[in-house]
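Reopening closed ticket. The problem is back. First fold of the pair:
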Amino acid sequence: MEDIESILVITEPIFLLIKFCDGDGSKIGEMYEKMDNMLEKIKDVMLDNKYASNYTQPEKMVLSRCVTMTI
């Protein structure tokens, strides 16, 4: 149960960003700021989490996606 709660806390900022992007209207201008905020939230959550050593994995995924969007 503890593992599930840890993963839910880590993935919540990702879910919220996806939910934001799924709304109506243009989102690209706000999305970059929200992605930065999302990474900060994930980093903060993972500091006190047993998965702290794995922070670089979600960070790399988000940053690679960001690069893909700008091409």
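Second fold of the pair, where the issue appears:
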Amino acid sequence: MDRFCAYNARFGHAAGDALLIDLGSAISRVLSPESAGARLHADRFALLVPRPLLDEAVFLTRFSHRPEGAFCSVRSGVYEIGDVAPRPADMLDNALLALRAAKRGAGERRTLTYHRGLREEALFFQDVVREFAPALRDGLIGPRFQPIVSYPGGSVAGVEVLARWKHAEGGRTDPSRFVPVLEEAGFAAELDMHMVVRALVHLKGWVDRGLGTVPVSVNLSRSSLRAPGLPDRMTALLDAYRLPSSLICLEVSEEAWSSDPAQLKAALSRLRDAGFSIAVDDFGAGATSLEDLAGSPVDVIKIDKSFLRSQMSERDGMVVKSLVRLAHDLGLAVVVEGVETEEQALFLKEAGVDRAQGYLYAPPLDRASFEALLGGGV
């Protein structure tokens, strides 16, 4: 045998378990005599087969058993057996790790072969899930504050509150690593509300001390936006801290629009009706267009930093200027992220961008540093 393979087959069909059993029979018909296969549970199957049978293009074609009225979407994880084969349980575990990564991946790639990094990623996932609740309780997850400045003057016009995770061993401070884990594990909404409360606590302190009343931007995950009671909960928090909703901007990643745009628009409409402003974060990093946002409950687009280059070509400039112009035509304010040089800032001002944030003005700051900036301006 050359390969141990785990398959996940997703179906659009009302027949449910009966269809999976039927598919199991179809798998057995394409296996060679020296192969072995089994249904693990639900919609997962395991196969032990020679390498030629698992040529991805050939096998998936033979595997596309489609009873009338059904579609079959297959993802697979492969463990290639070397000269020294581990225990069968370990081979299956490795194939399942590859399957998990294949299911999480985007695009057309449907098969992924196991490598050592997948186990390290799985261990990281387990560590994050295990340590998340204690980290919240012990205050290890908290806010950093990145100022948003207005153009053309450059005064502080707002602040984005960003989650950071302090860890004695390091390597956990980057939210691009731990936030997706929390989303997948079902804890992202809990992180969101923790950060919202911390943002309100600090905002209330700034208002009471007379430091300023700039709007505060906080990020909301898809998990939070799916909760039907979110608008009421947010309004109750504002009432508790005696703060107006006009001081809160809720940022939603562009990626969220690809999952269920109708449900997302309904959730954002309820929040906007409650007085919150809505921003689309990382705009341009995905496939969402300004046409998709037309008529949506959105006030701001935050153009992704990938649009800025150290050397802006004429074409790059035309793209950004077109985005700004179209956004303004739709009544949307434009913020650009990732501004790092004076040349970029000058270009963005000439393009009519409303606000910007990035290391040119300040990195994400601790509370004391941001308060000093808020009190003295940029």
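Update: turned out to be a display glitch only; the data is intact. The first strand starts at residue 3 and ends at 11. The chain has a mean pLDDT of 82. Please close again.
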